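Section 5.1 Outputs to date
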Amino acid sequence: MKNIAIIGAGMTGLSLAYNLEEHNITIFDKSWRPGGRVSTRKHDNYFFDHGAHYLSTNHSVNQLNDVISKYNLGQVIEIDFATDYLKNKKTRKKIIIGQNGMNSIPKSIFNNIKVKRYLNSKIIKISKNSNDLYSLFSEKEEFKDFDYVLICIPYLQSKELSKDLIDFTQIVNEPSYDAIQTVMLSYKNNNNINIEAGLNLHKDISFFMNQNIKFNELSHDCWVLNMSSEYTNNNIDIDKNTLEKYAQSIFEETFDIKNEISFIKSHRWLYAQTKVSYNTISKKNWINSKDNKIFLSGDWVLGKSLSDAWDAGEKLSHYIKILSV
């Protein structure tokens, strides 16, 4: 049995913790909650999935399906979906959503696995001890004697944290991300929009989704808009009020909305989704130190979906099991 530290309680970190539960696992995350970018925002009586929106029913990770079924974490719904709103292309689409918002999926997995956990704990340094074990340091505390350290946070942050332990000069091409501005908005009255989600609402809005189909308790008409990555990159530091008014004006003009808005809020995701995966570049499924004790993984390894993130953790866990024999 090994002492294993997992940095990052997103889907990859949770996949590793789930698959390596026979070891002594300690999981760290700088946030107050697990899930990473699988985020559900609550404000008064409003709810918004403003990170990951849904899970595809045809994703290829069987284990994630099994976990969702085992803990009763999701439900399949069928919605009217615009595959390209600007070109008036629409279909019926089956998707998996969380039982109580998308963050309820990682939250429930986190609560069901038997691991030590330190939330609100940002790890800022990793060092090797004289006995060839590793120590982790937050701003206030030291955590000692880990056989393996598995880093499951965005690539650039992983690289910065492990740069003294891994030779990154061998990595010629690096994975990259798209940044996305997300806007959450709600109206007091139902706008009777006849589409529930879709792509390409506008040249500057790449995705939109109704939240009432996920949260039955919502009394107001709630929506989430994703600005396009191109727009976000060109306006990376835009004033939030300016962004929100712009997104609102597009949404209301598109659907001829006359109702009074009751809530609007935006959030910028710098590492919203994988643009170029590490596997695409290198055909490899993780980055590791020479001593095979420090490993980097995450959604940036295989792709941008929740299932890609889980799959990356599952693949690395198989290798860790071989090393631990």
